[in-house]
C-alpha cells in the first residue's frame, strides 16, 4: 500500500513526483511485490493534481524538468506490471484523477462531496494528449469529449455512473474493499494478466515514448505564454479567496 502524504493537499510537486516514481520503480523491481493500492493519508483529499506553483513564474529549465517528472510518473504507473488499485478517499482533480485513471481499478469513497475529473479546461489549460488517451481508455470517446471540454469534476455518485470509477463504498470500508479487489486480481497468473494489460495499454504508452521530447517542448511553449500564466495566477487567487 502506498499512502500519499504531502500536506496540505497532496499536490504533485517535482519532489513528490520524483519520490513517487522512485517508489514505483522499487516496487516494480521487487519480485515479492505483485500489486499496490494507492490511497491518501490526508483527510478529504486524494491528490489536488499537479502543483500549480511548479507551473507559475519558473524558468524554462524548471518547466522541462517538471514535465519530464510528470511523464515519468505516468509511464511507470500506466505501464506497471503490478496490479494497481486506486482507493480514492477524497477530492481527485486533474493530475489526481490521472493517477486514479492509470490504475487497473478505482474504488471511491461514497461521499458526494468528493469529486473527480480532468478539470484542466476550467484553469484555462489543456489536458495533454496522453491524459486524454488515458481518460478515453476508461470512459470512452463521447464521455471524455464532453468532460474534457467542460473541465467537469464529478461527485462520486456521478463518477460511478460514467464509469470514471468502478465502485463506491463507505469510506470506512474503502481499504478493506481495495484489499479484496487486489486479492481477486492477484488470484490470476501474473504472466497472462501482465501481457493482457500491456496489450490494452501499449499503443497509448508508445505514443508518449515516441513523442516525449516534443511533448516537453509543447508544454514549455504553452505554459510560458503570458495568457496562460495569467489564467493560472487567477485560478490560484480564486483558490485563496474561496477560503476567506
Ligand atoms: N497546486 C498548488 N497549490 C494548491 C493546489 C495545486 N494543485 N491545490 C490547492 N493548493 C493550495 C491552495 O492554494 C491553498 O494554499 P494556501 O493555504 O496558501 O491558500 C492550499 O493548497 C489548500 O487548498 P484549499 O484551501 O483549496 O483546500 P481545500 O481542502 O478547501 O480544497 C482541493 C482542496 C479540493 C484540492 C482544492 O484545493 C482544489 O480544488 N485545488 C485545485 C485543484 C486543481 O484544479 N488542480 C489542477 C492542477 S493542473 C493539473 O493537474 C494538470 C495540468 C496539466 C497541464 C497541461 C498544460 C499543457
UniProtKB/TrEMBL annotation:
MF terms (GO), sorted A to Z: isomerase activity
Source organism, top-level taxon:
Eukaryota
Does the UniProt entry include the keyword Isomerase?
Answer: yes
User: Keywords of this protein's UniProt record, alphabetized?
Assistant: Isomerase
Q: Where are the transmembrane segments?
A: none
Q: Which family does it belong to?
A: Belongs to the enoyl-CoA hydratase/isomerase family.
Name of the molecule in the record:
Enoyl-CoA delta isomerase 1, mitochondrial
Q: What organism is recorded for this protein?
A: Willisornis vidua (Xingu scale-backed antbird)
Amino acid at each position: 500500500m502506498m499512502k500519499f502524504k504531502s500536506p496540505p493537499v497532496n499536490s504533485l510537486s517535482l519532489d513528490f513526483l520524483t519520490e513517487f516514481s522512485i517508489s514505483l520503480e522499487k516496487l516494480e523491481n521487487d519480485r515479492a511485490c505483485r500489486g499496490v493500492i494507492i490511497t491518501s493519508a490526508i483527510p478529504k483529499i486524494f491528490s489536488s493534481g499537479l502543483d500549480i506553483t511548479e507551473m507559475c513564474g519558473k524558468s524554462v529549465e524548471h518547466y522541462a524538468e517538471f514535465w519530464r517528472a510528470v511523464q515519468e510518473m505516468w509511464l511507470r504507473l500506466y505501464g506497471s506490471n503490478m496490479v494497481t488499485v486506486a482507493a480514492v478517499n477524497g477530492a481527485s482533480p486533474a493530475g489526481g484523477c490521472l493517477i486514479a485513471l492509470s490504475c487497473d481499478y478505482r474504488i471511491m469513497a461514497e461521499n458526494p462531496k468528493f469529486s473527480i475529473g480532468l478539470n484542466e479546461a476550467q484553469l484555462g489549460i489543456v489536458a495533454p494528449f496522453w491524459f486524454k488517451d488515458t481518460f478515453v481508455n476508461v470512459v470512452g470517446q463521447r464521455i471524455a469529449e464532453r468532460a474534457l471540454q467542460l473541465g467537469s469534476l464529478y461527485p462520486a455518485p456521478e463518477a460511478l455512473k460514467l464509469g470514471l470509477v468502478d465502485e463506491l463504498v463507505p469510506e470506512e470500508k474503502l481499504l478493506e474493499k481495495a484489499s479484496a479487489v487486489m486479492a481477486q486480481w492477484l488470484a490470476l497468473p501474473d504472466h497472462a494478466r501482465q501481457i493482457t494489460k500491456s496489450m490494452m495499454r501499449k499503443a497509448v504508452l508508445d505514443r508518449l515514448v515516441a513523442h516525449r521530447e516534443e511533448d516537453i517542448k509543447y508544454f514549455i511553449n504553452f505554459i510560458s505564454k503570458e495568457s496562460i500564466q495569467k489564467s493560472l495566477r487567477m485560478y490560484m487567487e480564486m483558490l485563496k479567496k474561496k477560503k476567506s
